[in-house]
Each structure stands twice: as C-alpha cells, then as structure tokens.
Design brief:
CATH topology of the largest domain: Peroxisomal Thiolase, Chain A, domain 1
Order of helices and strands: EHEEHHHEHHEHEHEHEHEHE
Number of domains: 2
Largest sheet: 6 strands, mixed
CATH architecture of the largest domain: 3-Layer(aba) Sandwich
Number of strands: 10
Helix content: 25-40%
Distance between the termini: 41 Å
Number of helices: 11
Structural class: alpha/beta
CATH class of the largest domain: Alpha Beta
Radius of gyration: 20 Å
Length: 330
Amino acid sequence: MENKVVITGLNIISSLGLNRKETWEAMLAGKSGVRYISLFDASGLQTRIAAEVSPAFEELSKQHIKKRMAGQMTRVTRMAFVCAKQAMEEARLDFGGFDRKRCAVIMGIVNTGNSSVEKETTKQNRVLKSMTNAVPAWISLEYKLEGPNFSVNTACAASAYAIGLGYDMIRSGQMDLVIAGGADSIINPEEIEGFNELYALSTNNDPPEKASRPFSANRDGFVIGEGAGVLILESETSARKRGAGIFAELAGYAISSEGYNIMAPQPDGAGMAYTMEQALRQSGITKEEIDYINAHGTSTTLNDLYETMAIKKVFGERAYQIPVSGSKSR
C-alpha cells in the first residue's frame, strides 16, 4: 500500500524575513531582499549586490543553538538548524509518539559556506564546519532521530532532490516523517568572481532591487542570495492520527538528466519539458489542473528562453493562461 505524503510544517529564513510569516508578508508587499553587500567589502567586484539574510539572524540563532554547538557550525549550518527547529515547532511534533528509526533528515547542501567570509574558523572546527553532511546530522542529533540522515548536492536542484527523496521514503512505507529542505550562501568574493567570469551574475548594481529580472528582455544574470528552507513531510496516516494541521499534499515529482552540457540546457528546453511531463504523469495530475508554475527563472539568456519554450511545449495554448513567476526575482 502506498502512503499519501503531506506537509505538516514549513519554514523559511531569507533576505525578506527570519521566518515564513515575515518572508511571505514581504513577498505579498512586493518587497525585494536584494541590497548592496555588507558581509565584506565588495567595491572591487563587478557584482556588488546580493540577497543577504538580516544581521538580526545572529541573535535569533542564540535562542536556538548553544554556544559550543554554534562554534562548530557555519552561518549556513546555523540557518538550516534554526529553520528546521522553527518548522518542527509549527508542525507541533512530539516525537514521543514516533518510532525515531522511522524519521529521517535529508538536506540539499551544496556547500556549508565555510568561505573567506566565514568568521571564527579554526583548526579545531574547520572540518566540522566544512562537512555538508554535518547539516542534517545536527538536526538529527537535536531530536535523537535514528533514521537516515544525509545531504544531497545537485546545485540549484539540491533541495528539490531532498524533498523528492523524502517523498519516496514515506510513499514506500520506509519512513513516517522526513525533515527535508536545504540551505546555502555563496556571498563571498571568490564565488562572485567565479560567476562573473562565467557571465552568469547580474552586474546591474544600481538600484539593487531591480537587478533580478527573470524572463525580461534586458535580463543580464541572476543575483545570489542566502538562507534556508525546510518542509516537514509526513505520511497522511501519521498526520491524521496525531491531529496535525496539513498545509498540502505532495503529489509527486520527477528527476531527469540531460547529459548535454556542464552549464547550458538542451536547446528548445527539451530536457525541462520531459521532466515536467514525467512529474505530471507520476503525480496523476492533468495539465488542466495546473494553475501556477514556479519557474527556475535564473534571468540568464538561455535558461529563461528555453524554460519558456519548455512550458509552451508541455502546456500548449494553456501556457498563456497559467501564471508563471520565479522566487529569485525577490
């Protein structure tokens, strides 16, 4: 018997807010989280803007993380940890009613942010601060969970992979609950310079709020940001048994690989279209039931062009009636 997968908790820490409520309200108000970089002196870089999390996060993290633990974590790891704790609080979870061997943590982590900007890295904590698998491990330790805990590194899709893998574990009956999501920050000189060399980042520094322009004719690249996002995935049986509030059902997903180019997508969005078709098929949802698309929307020349073509290929004339937006624009 396959189990339905539902979302019973969620949270986000972003440049727009330190929790889901703050971030959502800022998005509804049309605010942008992109500002001039303050984490270091960026005056010598082509790109001098980013979507930084508020400095107020440091005080928030002290409420959730003991000093010794915090010293073994990077800022990115602390964001993931605090974000997960807030999501768990919202889900009103008491693990006394769970088999902890059937509870997992899967996080999409490309790197832990242990860069030139990270403060207080020493010989004693360098390894712990650099290990991507330490992020889900800290969360598992907090709740004494004994199910799988690991990180996924698939660039921009890392968190989506983590959520998909969590879905599979619950759907197949292996797990009752999975904490899934991700965190990242590449706001540092070395990675900004690297992306500038690849012509991937926007250099429209003034005003910062107007730099990210997905699907616009004058787009010139994406704007980097930082933060964390976490979902509490649970079997519907478990959620209803404990009377949990349910935000949504996770109906399905699809993963594919184009095997085409290390940077560029397949021409005409063929690979993207195939993945969307597979996601619809695996979730049992018809094209007519789709009323919103959250796009990758990187503001790069090829992605936005081919993503648009892929959407039109999948949905035909309905593509012109379905609202499409990209979270990166904020």
